[in-house]
């Protein structure tokens, strides 16, 4: 079953890289709760929450060609979200 999930992720990524915006909407739909939770737990900011989530998915889209299948897509998206939030918090405290 795990292999099917990975293969589905790979197909989804390929579709996005080929210009299929509906496939990217599927990625957003699958990972929006994960990203939202990471944003909330990392920043605790209600005011910045929606903007940060949007910025993260833009970053995911822009970097999707660098995704390597050694890790699950959820792990990769989560890493991007976490690092983006850390950078946001650092900028706010500087």
Tally of strands:
0
Largest sheet: none
What low-confidence regions span 5 or more consecutive residues with pLDDT below 50?
none
Gross morphology? elongated
Strand content: under 5%
List the helices and strands and how they pair.
Blueprint (H helix, E strand, L loop, with lengths): L1 H16 L3 H23 L5 H15 L9 H21 L1
What does this 3D model show about the protein?
With 94 residues, this protein is an all-alpha fold. The protein has a single domain (2-93), classed as RNA polymerase sigma factor, region 2, helix turn helix motif (Rna Polymerase Sigma Factor, Chain: A). The protein has four helices and no strands. It has helices at 2-17, 21-43, 49-63, 73-93. The protein is elongated, with a radius of gyration of 14 Å.
Task: Quickly list its features.
4 helices, Rna Polymerase Sigma Factor, Chain: A, 94 residues
In short:
By secondary structure, the protein is mostly helical. Helix content is 80%, strand content 0%. The protein is built from four helices and no strands.
